Amino acid sequence: IPTHRGKGLVYGMYDYAFPRLIDAGIQKSRLEVITENIRAVRAYQKVGFQIERTYKCYQGEIFLNDPLPFQLEKANLDEWTVSPHFDQSSYSWDNEIETLQRGNFDAYFVLHKGQRESFFLIHPENGKIPQMKCFSSDYSSWTRLFSAIQSLSPVIKIDNVDTREHRKIDWAHRLLLKNTIDQYDMSWYKS
Question: Is the pLDDT confidence value at 129 over 90?
């Protein structure tokens, strides 16, 4: 909130919170901050938060020049969590499965020739995609993934794509999605 900036509220808040977190057995605290908000980033670093990773957020209409045919299999989150491809290491806290289980997301596998080749979660009303994964790196698999997504929602929003996920970022650019904001994932660890 602009009127409260520069008043040391971050320091006071965490001076109060950290002892209580430690007493409650909390070992780690995470937050996200917009990368351009340099003052906030510095304030969080001064109280002990470290930048863990950088995220990019995208939204817009999917533009596929040559969509490919696909098969769509509705799934549930339990099927995804037991999949050999299940990996939560690149997702932000608000896109991890524990958080998403409390939300209203539909889960799908995309199949090619009867074989599962990708997965995605999508909010049926607003097109938000908190998780997606292509099990191979070939162009056709990614095209089928986004062809399937487009069939359910031509306008999508993908928050917090880890910048280490080069394929996802390449495809966001290829689809002409707008990079709306960049954020840091920052963590504090009990010392």
Answer: yes
**H/E element holding 42?**
helix 38-46
CA dist., res. 34 & res. 87, Å (int): 25
Share of the chain above pLDDT 70, in %: 95
Contacts 24+ apart (CB under 8 A), 147-151: 147/64, 147/67, 147/68, 147/69, 147/70, 148/70, 148/72, 148/108, 148/110, 148/118, 148/120, 149/62, 149/120, 149/122, 150/62, 150/64, 150/67, 151/72
Reading the block at residue 151, the tokens are 């069939």
pLDDT of 82 above 70: no
Closest CA to 163 of 177, 187, 142, 183: 183
pTM: 0.85
Predicted pLDDT at 137: 87
State the DSSP code for 128. B
What pLDDT shows up at residue 78? 76
Would you give the DSSP letter of residue 158? E
Report in angstroms the alpha-carbon separations of 2 from 5, 39, 42, 111: 5, 12, 16, 48
**What are the two backbone dihedrals, phi and then psi, of residue 153, each rounded to the nearest 5 degrees?**
-155, 105
Judge whether 33 and 40 are in contact, CB under 8 Å.
yes
